[in-house]
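Progress against Task 2.4 (sequence-to-structure conversion) is shown through the following example record, which the project officer requested during the mid-term review.
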Amino acid sequence: MPVSSSADAAKAASDKKAAETAAAAKAAASASAKDIADLAKRFGQGGDLSIEQDNYGNFRLVSNQNGQTVPMYFVVAANGKDWDVFTGSQIVKKYKADVAKGIGLEGLRKKLYEIGFISKAEYTTKDEAAFNNAILGAANAHSMEQVQKYTLNPGQKSYTFTPFTGWLGTKQSGITPTTPNIDTEFQATTKIQTDQDIDSFTNDLIGRDATVEEKANYFKLVSDEMAKTSRKSTVKGTAQTTTGAFLNEDDYFRIASKVIAPSLQNTPLEGIDKLGGKVIKQITDLKDYAHSYGIPLDSKQALNYVMQGLDVGGSLNTGAIDSQKNILREMSKAFYSNISSLIDAGVKPLDIANQFAYYKGKILEQPDNAVNVFDKDIQAALKNNGKSGVMSLTDYELLLRNSPDTKGIFLGTKGAREEASNYANTILKSFGLIG
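C-alpha cells generated for the chain above:
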C-alpha cells in the first residue's frame, strides 16, 4: 500500500475517534442538563418531591401526591447522572436483584449487618423482615446523601451522584465502632418515695396508711430488687439494642402485695368486714357472686380468694378476681352437676332457687324472702337426687308436705285445713251422712 494512503487512513481513524469523543461529551452534557432540569422541576417550588422529618426526627424523601406524602427512594444509574425515584417495595426488589449480581444476597445481608442496619440477632436468625427493613434503612440513608448534593447546592451546572452499590462500598467497618458504645443504667429509689407508694397502695387496697413495719419492709424489698436490675443500651453503627429491664408497675404491685399480705391474712373474721378500700369491695363482690351460684362463702374465705388474686400480681379489678370468680362458677357446676348445662347457658342457681322459694312461701304460707338458696328444701329441689334437671313442682310440693321439717308447718296452714275439711266432707258425703 502507498505511504500516502496509509497516512490518510490513520488520519481518518483519528478524526473519527475525535468526532465520537466530542459526540459523547455533547451527549453527556445534554444528559446532565436534562437531569438538572428534572431535579429543579421535581424539587423546586410546586414540585412533587421534598425532604421531611418523620415522627422520630429522621429525614426522608417523600413524594407529595394528592395531599398525601409517600416515602420514596432516590435511585442513581451506573453513570452517576441519570436518576429515578422508587417506592419501598420497588427499591427492596431492585436492590436485592442488583446487589445479588455482585456480592449476593448473603453478602448484602452481611454488609448491612456490619454497617449497623441489622442487629446481631436478626443477622444470626436471618430474619427476612429485618433484612427488608435494613435495605429500606440503607436506601433511605443513601437517598439523603445523594439528594442533598443537589438540595444543598442547587445552582451547580452538573452533579455526580453515587449509585447504591458504590455507596455501599464506601461504608467500611469503620462506620461501626470496633467496641460498641454501651450505656448501663441502674435504678434507685428513696425511702420517702417508697413510703408514699406503699401508703397509696394500702389506702387504695384496705383504706389505711401502711404501718412503720410495712414501710420499712417495702423499702427494703424494692431496694433489694432494684440492686439486681440494670438496663444496657448498646449502640453499634446506626443500630441500638437494649437488654435488661427496670421494675415496672406489676413488680411494684407484686412487692406491695407481699408486704401487706401477712396483715390481711391475720385479720380476724369479725374484723374483715371493717376493712375499707378495694379489699372489702372485692370480698363483698365475691361473696355475692358465690351466693348467686349456690356456693357458701364467708368473709374469711373470700379474703383468701382475694389474697390469691394478689399473689399473681395482677389488677384486683380485672384478671385476678375474674379468675377467682371462674373457680367459683366451675365449683358450682360440680356441686350442681345435674344443672351444669343450665349454668353454662347463663342460668344461676340463685335464679332457680328464687322460684322454689316463691312456691315454698306460697305452699307454707310464709314470706318467700325468708327463704334463701341454702335452704335445705331448696337445695334438695336444686340437686333433685342427682337426676337431670331440677325437681318438678309436683315433687317439690310433696316434699314440703311430707318433710319432717315442714310437714307440721304445712298442716297448720289455712290451705291444709281447707283441704282437710273438703276431704272430710267428701268422705261424709260418700257415706250419705251429709247432704
